[in-house]
């Protein structure tokens, strides 16, 4: 009896990996075994960094709010404490955008909570 192999599926699997490795440098883009490792690692980083991105943006917003608050003579923690005490329902993302792109609006908030 002849040997049965599913070459069609195997080729499709390899082709899929090489397609994902498009744009990689050297053998990572055209040698299946190397490409498979590179793609697997890339997908691992992508999964990890989708979570890390949220942390990075929060840290960036905090830095921007801190810079804006210090221009009005307050630290970040003072500013956020007073924001919550005055029941101003603006999140860090919005406050950071105001501090960066609309300083007059941020100033109005700072004056209101002082």
Class by alpha and beta content? mainly alpha
CATH superfamily: Ribosomal protein L20, C-terminal domain
- Percentage of β-strand residues: under 5%
CATH class descriptor name: Mainly Alpha
Shape: rod-shaped
Report the C-alpha radius of gyration, rounded: 26 Å
Give the topology:
Layout: H1 7-20, H2 32-71, H3 76-85, H4 92-101, H5 103-113
Description:
The protein is an all-alpha fold and 114 residues long. The protein has a single domain (7-113), classed as Orthogonal Bundle (c-terminal domain of poly(a) binding protein). It is 75% helix and 0% strand. The longest helix is centred in the middle third of the chain and has 40 residues, at 32-71. The mean pLDDT is 96.
Question: What characteristics describe this protein?
Answer:
114 residues, mainly alpha, c-terminal domain of poly(a) binding protein, 5 helices, rod-shaped
Short description:
This protein has 114 residues and is mainly α. It contains five helices and no strands.
């Amino acid at each position: 009896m002849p040997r049965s192999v599913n070459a069609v599926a195997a080729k499709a699997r390899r082709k899929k990996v090489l397609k994902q490795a498009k744009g990689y440098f050297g053998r990572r883009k055209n040698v299946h075994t190397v490409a498979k490792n590179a793609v697997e690692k890339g997908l691992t980083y992508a999964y990890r960094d989708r979570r890390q991105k949220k942390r990075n943006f929060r840290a960036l917003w905090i830095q921007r709010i801190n810079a804006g608050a210090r221009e009005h003579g307050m630290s970040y923690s003072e500013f956020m404490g007073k924001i919550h005490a005055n029941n101003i329902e603006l999140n860090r993302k919005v406050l950071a955008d105001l501090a960066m792109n609309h300083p007059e609006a941020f100033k109005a908030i700072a004056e209101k909570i002082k």
